Structure prediction request, 690 residues.
Amino acid sequence: MLLRFDQVSKTYRGENPVEALREVSFDIDTGMFVAIRGPSGCGKSTLLLTAGTLLAPDHGEVVINGERPYAMSGDARASFRGQQLGFVFQQFHLVPYLNLLDNVLAPTLSLAATPAAVDPGIARDRALELLQQFGLGDRVRHTPAKLSSGERQRCALARALLNRPQLLLADEPTGNLDPENAGLVLQAMRAFAASGGAVLLVTHDDRAAAAADSTFWMSDGKLRQQPHEAVQA
Amino acid sequence: MSLSHLIFREIAHRKLSFLLSVVAVAVAALSIVAADLVVRRDAEVTRRIMADKQAQTESAIEEKIALVAAAGADLEDAIRKQMKGLGFNVLILPESQDVSELHLQGSLSETMPESYTERLAGSKIMTVNHLLPTVLKQVRWPEQDLDVVLYGTRGEVPLMHRDLKKPLLDAVAPGQMVVGHAIHQKLGLQVGQAVTFMGQEFTISQLHPERGSSDDVTLWIDLGQAQELLGLQNLVHAILALECECAGDRIAQIRAEIAGILPGTQVIERYSQALARAESRTKAKQVAEESLAAERLAGEEALSRELASRQRLERGHQQLAWVVLPLVLVLAAAAVGLLAYVNVRYRREEIGVLRALGLRTRQVLVVFLGKAVLSGIIGGIAGVLLGMAAGALIGPILDRSEVALSVGLTETIVGTPGFLVTLMLTPVLAIGLATMASWIAAAMAASQDAATILQGE
Prediction:
């Protein structure tokens, strides 16, 4: 099992406490492309960040590839995140002052001075290969400001895949894309899952959800599986 | 891809922010170096001025010493001459001589061998410095029909066991005559005039001014001629034994010494005259010393005044530095800190993404502190260079003295070990300042919660 959520709960404290996750349990195995749908504020992003080892749950257990990241130290969890997980965001979050090649290479920083460190030459070749794969081979020296939204998201996807993660976490990756580019991104994520990884996609987009192997519906912090046919319908 | 690459790319992307940080650090470093240079310039200028003044004072004192020595020698010589006119310390007379004759008539009648003088001079007498054999008798100047005191002198007889001293009484050459004041006034005599005295021809070599003593009615001629005129060949009336320090208990010692060498003689002391002479010499010495002391004091006071003035100026500059320097450092640190804080705020999203990509807390700290260190290095070096230039420019403005304006002063200071330490430490301080000022912002960046940032997006 690549990702396991076992009775995971998360509440945001404050004047008006919000139960973002309520005893959420689900599993994702390798090769799976899972989509989670639901209305705004239902806890989708909280689930994604918790799966991304960035937001510790109040209760329950998160297991990724047999490891319990929230039992690790902060630095160990950061390294684990860099090696095992890839992120794609709706807003792309590319570093504005780095060109595409450097943006794609940025995840290698997390491997520096660790046993998983990659030879810079090999990393560079891999980054160029990914950029070529996503149709950005002639834009490697361009900064994100000179790219279209679709190109930026493809670059972000290349960055997410550089360290050969086990799990790809995507938060509305097609939210700002035209249908053509959205199709390209979804196609790439499917290919990643097919190659032995796993994808957890959080989206409002029905077409994106339809691309997934299985879909969950989330409401008020609770998760329930949605029949695939219902999504496609 | 490395953290340094990330730092350099970010700097290239936000040049103005980095440039402002560098400028703030450079201003701090500049202030340190310039303040230190100005203070060291002050000290060097003071040292040079004081050295010059000291040399001038010492030179003036040397000149004064030479002047005083010359004046003292003249004064002493004049005193010596005066003493001669006033009389003698000790008169050695034949024992049979009635002293009242000398006091009442100004002349002597008893004689003793002139060889006594050589005997005394050949002895090892220690208390007497000068010996003058004389004949001294009241006679009639038949050619002028005038009573005078005839004083025959041959000048000083050297003491055999002493180095030759300058004679106290100038000898009168044979055929010449020195005339007392009352005589030359009465007869209307002139220097160079030929006169006949007791049948012999003399030329007047000197006319004495009025002394108010028996000297005014005295004629001085060569001892040999006087002995011949008086029929006293190889005889003298008295030996004038001159003793500079004959005051006090030493008179008894002089008498005892002379009595042992010249039996059958008596010694008359001219106490008051000897004391006056000693006092005059002491006074002359005292005047010279006081003059020198006054010169020294004036020199020292001038030096003290100059030093105090320089110290006031130095204190003023130091106080200015102590006020301005901390202010500049605080402002520079605040500026660097503020720029770092703004930078962190501006890069909030980037921090969240980097954390999501797996960067560790220490790496995020390095990203921000690395930039601070870089601004410290560049600002520190630039500040040192600019500070040297600023110090060299400001120094002469703050201190308008001639020495402060002299060429090469700054170069001299730059080569000193103390200032070299400042030059080497300032970039280190600049790096420390930039790092410390950026620390809070960097710590804020490192502690950013990626989840919160990404949720906010």
